[in-house]
Amino acid sequence: QVQLVESGGGLVQAGGSLRLACAASGVTIAGYSVAWFRQAPGKERELVAATRVISGGTLYADSVKGRFTISRDSQNTVFLQMSTLKPEDTAVYYCAADRSRSIGRLPADYDYWGRGTQVTVSS
Question: Which residues of the chain are modeled with pLDDT < 70?
Fold first, then answer.
């Protein structure tokens, strides 16, 4: 049973930083694509960043390029380092994983999801 648990969300002022973590259990994520999505109230869930863990390939939304970095450690955890945060980054952030060889851009491309962590950026 694959389980993904997000942590690290919170309230931060604009210009600040947060690091989100996605801890995976029930699977070794080396063979998976892992992504961070976000969903703001009244909006669709959108891709923020994704990585094909075994190759190290990454994909970022244009809105976060240069500000966010996705990475993993050796303990089955994927991180999202968020810097220079803006109020428009406010959303619930979700971790997702899939065994596909390619990095998916859509929520439907991912089979496994965490429950999300709230990120609020004040102006």
Answer: none
